[in-house]
């Protein structure tokens, strides 16, 4: 038997989901609005959203910017809801249910990427029994899916593009900075917005510092 469908008014969007999908958090509208700010000087083209869940964050960003949208989630139930939520909102969205590494063609490039990976350490997942494990389990230290989103995003981003990444705690933000220092020349965390108790939002953009240009 299917789980009963629920609904939320997400900044004016009618978003549907059920308990098999992570409940949309109202605070994440801040991520959508920041993405819309970044879109003003991002290269043209669609927005890419990774780990989209029910699709609400990317859909609001697409509505605010007028851009098309590509959304990816490994959970087919979440992808189905994202697809239906896009149709209900009248937003053009190409929703793909696949692992991140196989969902995108090598030649697909985006000026703006939104990533909402699971970031709970595996050992803490049981503290959140109402959340689907697949949607919140980020591995032993909560960084596994953050790293996968970073790697995928930077492969698909245009040189002047922007990544807006959601993490859970300051330690993970520090891990992102350290990883970029070692693996992504020319990219850096340029801004952080603390939205706790929800999470933290990191802007990863071109590194315009003197060290980043070396």
Automatic annotation (TrEMBL):
One of its GO terms (biological process) is methylation. Keywords: Methyltransferase, Transferase. The keyword tRNA processing does not apply. GO terms for molecular function: nucleic acid binding; peptide chain release factor N(5)-glutamine methyltransferase activity. Its EC number is 2.1.1.297. The keyword Methyltransferase applies. Residues 41-119 form the Methyltransferase small domain. It comes from the Bacteria. This is Release factor glutamine methyltransferase. It comes from Nocardioides thalensis.
């Amino acid at each position: 038997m299917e789980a009963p469908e629920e609904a939320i008014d997400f900044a004016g969007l009618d978003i549907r989901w059920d308990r098999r999908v992570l409940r949309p958090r109202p605070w994440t509208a801040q991520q959508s609005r920041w993405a819309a700010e970044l879109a003003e000087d991002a290269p043209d083209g669609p927005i890419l959203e990774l780990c989209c869940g029910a699709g609400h964050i990317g859909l609001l960003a697409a509505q605010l910017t007028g851009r098309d949208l590509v959304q990816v989630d490994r959970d087919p139930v979440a992808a189905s809801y994202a697809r239906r939520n896009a149709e209900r909102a009248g937003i053009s969205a190409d929703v793909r249910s696949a692992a991140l590494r196989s969902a995108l063609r090598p030649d697909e490039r985006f000026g703006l990427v939104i990533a909402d990976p699971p970031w709970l350490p595996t050992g803490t997942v049981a503290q959140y029994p109402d959340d689907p494990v697949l949607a919140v389990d980020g591995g032993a230290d909560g960084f596994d899916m953050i790293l996968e989103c970073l790697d995928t995003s930077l492969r698909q981003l245009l040189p002047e593009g922007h990544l807006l990444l959601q993490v859970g705690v300051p330690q993970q933000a520090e891990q992102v900075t350290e990883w970029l220092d070692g693996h992504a020349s020319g990219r850096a965390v340029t801004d952080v917005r603390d939205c706790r108790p929800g999470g933290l939002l990191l802007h990863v953009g071109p590194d315009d510092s003197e060290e980043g240009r070396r």
